[in-house]
Amino acid sequence: MKKYLLLYFLILVSLLIGCRGKNIIEGEIHSDLRTMDQELEFIRQKASSVYKNEKGFWEAEFIHDIVMIYIPEGTFIMGNDRLGEKISGSPAAPEHPVTLTGYWIAKTPVPKAQFRIFVEEENYITSVEKPGHEGPWVYDFEEKGFITIPGFNWDNAFSQVTTAFPYVKIDDNHPVTCVSWFDAEDFRQWLSQKTGVNFVLPTEAQWEYAARGKDQRIYPWGNDDPDGTKANYAEEAFHAVFPGTEQSIVHFGIDDGYAATSPVGSYPLGASPCGALDMAGNVTEWVFDWYGKYEKKHYKNPLGARKGKDRVMKAGFWAGSAGREDQNPDELIIGHNIRADARQYDDPDSADDHLGFRIAIDYVARKHSDR
Fold first, then answer.
1. Degrees (nearest 5) of the Cα angle 147, 153, 156?
2. Does 175 sit behind a cis peptide bond, omega within 30 degrees of 0 on the bond before it?
3. Which of 35, 97, 201, 332 might form a disulfide with 288, Cβ 3.0–4.6 angstroms?
C-alpha cells in the first residue's frame, strides 16, 4: 500500500511541475531597486536631458534620439474577459490585476535609423540574413498576403511595394521591421553596454500598462473607435495599394495617410495615458514574454510563461483591423487588430514586414529566459 501511495505522490508532483512550467511567473526585483527620485537622479547622469512631457510623465533623452518615459509603480487590470478562446491570435481572458514596479518605456518603436547605427557599429547580421533561414514574412502581390521570401530584410522589406507604387515612401524614420526577437534582444544588449543603463524588452504587462493605463481602455487614446487621426491600420490608403488582402478588414471612408508603415510618432492624437506613441497599429511589437495563458490571480511583475516555443507580440499593425466589437465581419476573429489588450505570438526566430519592437528599462530579474 505504501508503495502505491509513494507512486501516486510522485506522479502528482510530476504533474504539478509540468503544469507549473506553463503558468505565468513573477519576476524578482534586483536588490538595487531605487525610489522614483533616486531613479531620476541616476538617469540624469546617463541621459542628455530629463523633463516632464505633456501628460505629466518624466521623459529622458538618450543617445541616438532614444526617448524613454518613466511609468511609476501601479496596479491595473490586464486583459479583457470578452476576448476569450475564439479571439484571433490568442485569448486575452481572464481579466486579472497586475502590479508593476516603476519602469521606463520607449516613446516610440525603434526606427530604422537607430537600428542602422547598431548594424553598422556591430557589423550585425539579422536572423533572416543568415544561411538557412526561410526569410521574413513580406507582402506578396500575387498571393495578396504575407509569405516568407528569402532575400528580404530590415533594410529592403518594402522594396517590392515602393517599386510598384513610387508614392509609397519608407525611410529611416519608419519603424524597423523584419527583425526577430533575437535581433531585438541583441539591440537592447548593445544599447545597455553603450549607456550603462539596463535596457530590456518590455514585458507584456509593462507594454499593456503603458498602452492603456489604469482605466481598462480599449485603445491608447480611450474607447472611441479609431478615425484615421490616431493610428495606422487597414483603411483607404492601405486598400489603394493592397486590395483584397487576406485577413485584412478594410475600414472604408477613413484615410490615415499611409499604405504601409508610417514614420514613428506620426499620430500624437493617439498617445497613450503616459504619452507613448504608436501603441496601436503601425507595427506589431515583440515583448519579452514566452506565450502563456492568463490566470485569474493577482500578479506582481509577471514575466510570461516559465518556458515555451513562442514569444508574445502586441499592438497590431498597418494591415490590421480596428478590433471593434459586434461587427460583421467579426474584427476580433478575423486577422490582427490594434486593440491595446490584443495578443499575438510567434516563433522568436520569425520576422515580418509588420513586426518591430520598442525597448524599456527596468530592474526585474529575468532568469527563466533561455535564448
1. 100
2. no
3. 201
Compute the Cα dihedral for 242, 244, 249, 254 and give only its sign: positive
Question: CA–CA separation, 238 vs 118, rounded Å?
Answer: 31
H helix intervals, 109-235: 112-122, 159-164, 181-195, 204-212
Burial class (CB in 10 A: 0-12, 13-18, 19+), 351: buried
Dihedral sign for Cα atoms in the order 177, 179, 184, 186? negative
Residue 340: name the closest of 220, 206, 225 by CA: 220
Residues 6+ apart with CB under 8 A from 19: none
The sheet that has 74-78: what strands, in order across it?
74-78, 96-100, 299-300
The answer on pLDDT for 58 being more than 70 is yes
pTM of the model: 0.92
The three-point CA angle 105-369-16 to 5° equals 120
Tell me: the pLDDT tens digits for 116-139? 999 999 999 999 999 999 999 999
What is the dotted CATH code of the domain comprising 2-365?
3.90.1580.10
Domain boundaries, the chain: 2-365
Q: Which three cell numbers stand for residue 238?
A: 492601405
Structural contact between residues 240 and 231, judged by C-beta atoms closer than 8 angstroms:
no
